[in-house]
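Page 47, continued from p. 46.
Same chain as before, 126 aa.
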Amino acid sequence: MTEVVAALIWQNDKFLICQRPANKARALLWEFVGGKVESGENFAQALMRECKEELNVTVEVGNIFCQVLHEYPDITIRLTLFNCAIVTGQLTLLEHNDAKWITKDEIDDYPFCPADEEILKLIKLK
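Result:
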């Protein structure tokens, strides 16, 4: 099983979603910024590194919003989503195809990665 961390970043009543690149697995689906935890990293360190690498921002990692286990055909992941806030940096797409700030009412307008489906249900209830 692969440990994956992701950031739930709110700006007023909207949260940040990112569109995966066309050349990666689950191409062009939407997700939360984040990625795999590397050897020697704790979850917060991994999430801070991923946000810097993917969006050129520094985030403050807060508490866990939720955790889900998901089996894709090519990988089994445990996804831990953290409440986060951008501390410094200008949002810059370094890896993703696109990024958007959406409200919970707009969730159904975007095709998300299957692992995010349970998370999105919880956000809708928030």
